[in-house]
Amino acid sequence: MANKAQPPYLHLAELTASQFLDIWKHFDADGNGYIEGKELENFFKELENARRGAGMDSPNASFSEKMKEFMAKFDKNADGKIEMSELAQILPTEENFLLCFREFVGSSTEFMAAWRRYDTDRSGYIEANELKGFLSDLLKKANRHYNDQKLQEYTQTILKMFDLNGDGKLGLSEMARLLPVQENFLLKFQGVKLNAEQFNQIFTYYDKDGNGYIDEQELDALLKDLYEKNQKKEMDIQNLTTYRKSIMSLSDGGKLYRKELEIVLCREPLL
Q1: For residues 150 and 75, is the Cβ–Cβ distance under 8 A?
Q2: Per the database record, which ranges form the EF-hand domain (predicted)?
Q3: Can you tell me the distance from the alpha carbon of 88 to that of 85, in angstroms, rounded to the nearest whole number?
Q4: Residuewise pLDDT in 10s, the chain (271 residues)
Q5: Pairing verdict, β 125-127 and 169-171
Q6: How far is CA 161 from the centre of its chain?
Q7: Is pTM, for the whole model, over 0.85?
Q8: Can you give the three-state secondary structure of the chain, one letter per residue?
Q9: Which residues is 82 bridged to in the sheet?
Q10: Is the dihedral of CA 30, 230, 182, 144 positive or negative?
Q11: Ordered domains of the chain (ranges, CATH)
């Protein structure tokens, strides 16, 4: 527990991927995927101390004013919490592989297409060996130089960040946490997550012609109903188009079969 007493690495000019992870774990004390409430206050205090030590502090503003300004700058979805992708904007991470990911996968549509490409066995997960290939391709596309040791470090760091049950693989919603908040449409459906019975009922209901797959029109109707039931408000056309395009990136020539749709809507891929 000794390493918990001192906030790690905030004084450094540049962080490695594993140091970034240590900071995240230190301040996300309850492990819920956010730095919020007292955690957020503690993080900001320690960040201010580190900045003061580096001569970067603005002494005239009050703590509350500085924290308000800080949150306005970095809390992109204004939910009063800091997510991992937002923290990546705050801290100077060496060859920032989180921002590198976002350069390579700049939208939810690109993310879903990349997922389909690397989830080669269509299991609904990216296993460690698939993740390594994914990150290798990412670094090449972003023109980042790396060696096998660095690639292994990035792979292990991402697994440590998101593989909460330690089974060596990542689900779609876990990997999507690397997306910019405003692009992560999966966050909009966090409250939906269906079990097997619910999913089967919904799929059967919206597969109007009973051909075994969902087409774009059927998906529009499904998403609109799910969103409005979950969010208690109507979905606008622009969001509907974005969500549909993202999810259809998983499809086979415009045909969204059960396996692809369950990856998005279910808590765990169904057996």
Answers
A1: no
A2: 15-50, 62-97, 106-141, 150-185, 194-229
A3: 5
A4: 444 456 578 877 778 777 887 888 889 888 777 899 899 988 988 888 887 766 555 566 677 888 888 888 888 778 888 887 778 778 877 656 666 666 666 677 777 888 888 887 778 888 888 888 888 877 777 677 778 888 888 888 788 777 767 788 888 777 776 666 566 666 666 666 778 888 899 999 999 899 999 999 999 999 888 878 777 677 788 888 888 988 898 888 899 998 888 888 876 655 5
A5: antiparallel
A6: 10
A7: no
A8: CHHHHCCCCCCCCCECHHHHHHHHHHHCCCCCCCEEHHHHHHHHHHHHHHHHHCCCCCCCCCHHHHHHHHHHHHCCCCCCEECHHHHHHHCCEHHHHHHHHHHHCCCHHHHHHHHHHHCCCCCCEEEHHHHHHHHHHHHHHCCCCCCHHHHHHHHHHHHHHHCCCCCCEEEHHHHHHHCCHHHCHHHHHCCCCECHHHHHHHHHHHCCCCCCEECHHHHHHHHHHHHHHHHCCCCCHHHHHHHHHHHHCCCECCEEEHHHHHHHHECCCCC
A9: 35
A10: positive
A11: 14-37+72-180 (1.10.238.10), 191-265 (1.10.238.10)
- For the chain, the residue count is 271
Can you tell me which residue has the tokens 């920032």? 96
